[in-house]
Amino acid sequence: MDRRTSHPSEDSFMLFGMREHDNKQKGHLDYGNGHLHGPAVDLETAIRETGYGWYQFWLLMICGSVYMTCAIGTTTLSFVLPAAECDFTLDSANKGEINATPLVGMIFGSYVWGSMADTQGRKKVLVISLTMDFIAGLLSSLAPNFITFLICRFFNGFGIIGATSVCFPYLSEFLAFKHRDLNLCRLEIFWVLGVCAVPGLAWLLIPLKFTWTPYPELTFRSWRLFVFFCGVPSLIIGLTLHFCFHETPKFLLSQGHHDEALAVLRKVFVFNKRRDPSEYCVRRLAAETHNLQLNEDGSPMHFPHEHKGEKASLGRRIVLRLEVLWDQNVALFSGPLAKYTLLACFIDFGIMSSYYTLMLWFPELLERFHSYNNLHGGDAQVSGVCDVMGVVLDPGANNCTSPEHVHGPDNDVYLHTLIIGLSCLPTSFMLGYLVRKIGTRIMLSE
Question: Any keyword Transport (predicted)?
């Protein structure tokens, strides 16, 4: 039988084969820079030799699903504000606090997850952060009061920012340079799909008129069911990542795990090209010495506490992690990286203030327009948003006496928010093409 069509006995054809590489069975030591026969190949060349095919397709699907889940998790509250105001007796200031609390969690989480991604692995951070998002969503749906709900949403923001930021390097580190920008741009399509999924799911669940009172402090209404279901995708995708996908070769190599990195690359090669793993031409990977310090014999250099199986105390490990975190921040804001860091922060600030923040408030604003029309009649002349914002939705007044209001906003609110989300789809589909044609810098300036 021809070797190109034969089926090897190992499970390397399977995207889901996660069997670890065993150094002892191979009969050699792993020194981090690959003491194997043949020339050492840089990681970019090794990734290019694996080909570009179905593995990258499924990787894009899972990373896109992660990003879509992040969009769902970060915009869930937009429909909770008008639906939960009666249960929590919310005024405008309380609603602002609910919207702001996950963002505060993101500020703290970004430092933690960024450091963990560099030391513990991209895949581990994705799995843990998605699991945290699901748990926070579950507890949020059961929160008996306003303060408990805020605490749960803080951890929602803390967790979801890890998945939001790390899914980009996770995807890019399996891609050759020429395919990187296009596939990273394609992730934006999944974000828009997530933004569109939220009003669709809210429209399906929040209008349901049911109540369940497991104990006097908690009345479980339809908006709580909506919050719970918005967290379920995080659990499903986190489990899929854990059991079905690999750690990135770049991270494995940066930690001195040469053999494991090479084994992952072989599996990508086999999945893409349907060929025997022995046909993968790379036998030895060059160590990334800017991330891995080597001894004179080529073996990886360890911290003093790592020799002879010794393990540092918990306090010492925390101190070391904080030192690494501090060094990383200093590096970002010094030398040639400083101007790029500040530029990225400025761009992200503009995006968050002009797009994301408004997306959180759109359903609330639309609901206030609806209340304004009901108060002044359908033919009332509205001079601007300020007139509508003057209509304070006070639960202590007339709003919570209506069963319809208790079970969420008007149907037009869902429809109009869905249309706003769909309006972003054409640009997101064109993004990859435009970046290739006119360049990233021009696209950002536009």
Answer: yes
Task: Write down the residue that tokens 């043949």 correspond to.
Answer: 38
Report the domain count for the chain. 1
Q: CATH number for the domain including 158?
A: 1.20.1250.20
Contacts of 358 (CB under 8 A, 6+ apart): none
Predicted confidence at residue 420, as pLDDT, reads: 86
Domain encompassing residue 238: 54-245+336-445
- The verdict on pTM exceeding 0.85 is no
Give the model's pLDDT for residue 37: 54
In whole angstroms, how far apart are CA 378 and each of 279, 373, 398, 402, 416?
72, 5, 18, 19, 18
CA angle in degrees (0–180, nearest 5) for 272-275-278? 115
Written as one letter, the residue type at 297 is D
Single out the residue of 401, 403, 380, 405 nearest to residue 390, CA to CA: 380
SS3 413: helix
Number of continuous H segments (helices) and E segments (strands) in the chain: 19, 2
Question: How buried is 53 (Cβ within 10 angstroms: 0-12 exposed, 13-18 middle, 19+ buried)?
Answer: middle
Higher pLDDT, 145 or 416: 145
Asked if 96 and 360 touch (Cβ cutoff 8 Å), the reply is: no
Burial of 171 (C-beta count, 10 Å sphere; 0-12/13-18/19+): buried
